[in-house]
């Protein structure tokens, strides 16, 4: 995968990449891989996340993805730092404790939709003008298999991620051919996300479920690691995926096969 990406880049200047939520478990691994491949990377995240997981030698800009003004300001800072933006990965998201939709409060519903679907819209709206100025514009949203495969007791999270999958398709249609927009939909990944979330907790809470027990029900025999998500993300950013837009790559060890 890495060799394909490097050969595709050829003599082009380094890709200018923004990682929204780049201090999270998946985001950090994507950042290190992008940095290793010579990309120019800027990270946008909550102040607490940046304080806890700052990555050396990369610029960081504080952002609250639930606030459109904050998103636009941070995106402008990143564009100024990088000299433009060629690509963006949206890794923003969180879920609440397991609960049925019927038992989900109105406030919790609003919080989860706001922190996932609304945040994806705010981020897309802020970054698209910069992507249209690039000849390699690419946007990747991190969705979830729960957005396509309904399971009980995930409350508002599944509907929010379903919205991101459709948001991806609509953005792909509306911004083609200048900008490619795709999504990666992981299954469960063993990160702080399962323990309260990066920047939203001390990351030491008991996970929503036992990762080892979960792995017993996965055809490939284990829960995902952050490294399992990096390859699909990097692929969608690369010229190797140059004829793909509006697509969702499901990365779940065979748990869900659309």
Question: What does this molecule look like?
Answer:
Strands 3-2-1-4-5-6-7 form a 7-stranded parallel sheet, sandwiched between helices. It contains 8 helices and 7 strands; from the N terminus they run αβαβαβαβαβαβααβ. The radius of gyration is 17 Å and the shape is globular. Residues 1-9 have low confidence and may be disordered. The longest helix has 27 residues, at 106-132. It is 40% helix and 13% strand. With 258 residues, the protein is α/β, with parallel strands linked by helices.
SSE order: HEHEHEHEHEHEHHE
Radius of gyration: 17 Å
Unreliable spans are 1-9
What share of residues is helical? 40-55%
The assembly state of the depicted protein chains is single chain
Largest sheet: 7 strands, parallel
**DSSP, total strands:** 7
Principal-axes shape call: globular
Gap between N and C termini: 23 Å
Neighbour order of strands in the largest sheet: 3-2-1-4-5-6-7
Structural class assignment: alpha/beta
Task: Summarize this structure briefly.
The protein is of the alpha/beta class and 258 residues long.
């Amino acid at each position: 995968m890495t060799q394909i990406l490097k050969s595709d880049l050829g003599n082009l200047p380094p890709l200018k990449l923004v990682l929204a939520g780049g201090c999270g478990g998946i985001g950090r691994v994507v950042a290190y891989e992008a940095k290793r491949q010579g990309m120019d990377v800027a990270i946008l995240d909550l102040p607490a996340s940046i304080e806890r997981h700052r990555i050396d030698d990369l610029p960081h800009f504080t952002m609250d993805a639930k606030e459109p003004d904050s998103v636009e300001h941070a995106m402008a800072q990143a564009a100024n730092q990088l000299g433009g933006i060629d690509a963006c990965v949206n890794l923003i998201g969180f879920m609440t404790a397991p609960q049925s939709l019927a038992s989900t409060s109105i406030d919790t519903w609003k919080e989860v939709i706001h922190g996932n679907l609304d945040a994806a819209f705010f981020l897309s709206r802020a970054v698209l003008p910069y992507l249209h100025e690039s000849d390699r514009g690419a946007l990747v949203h991190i969705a979830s298999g729960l957005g396509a495969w309904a399971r009980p007791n995930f409350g508002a999270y599944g509907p929010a991620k379903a919205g991101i999958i459709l948001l991806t398709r609509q953005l792909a249609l509306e911004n083609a051919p200048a900008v490619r927009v795709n999504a990666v939909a992981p299954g469960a990944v063993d990160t702080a996300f399962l323990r309260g979330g990066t920047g939203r907790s001390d990351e030491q809470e008991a996970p929503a479920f036992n990762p080892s027990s979960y792995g017993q029900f996965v055809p490939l025999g284990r829960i995902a690691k952050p490294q399992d998500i990096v390859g699909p993300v990097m692929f969608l950013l690369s010229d190797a995926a140059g004829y793909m837009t509006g697509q969702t790559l499901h990365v779940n060890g065979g748990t869900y096969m659309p």
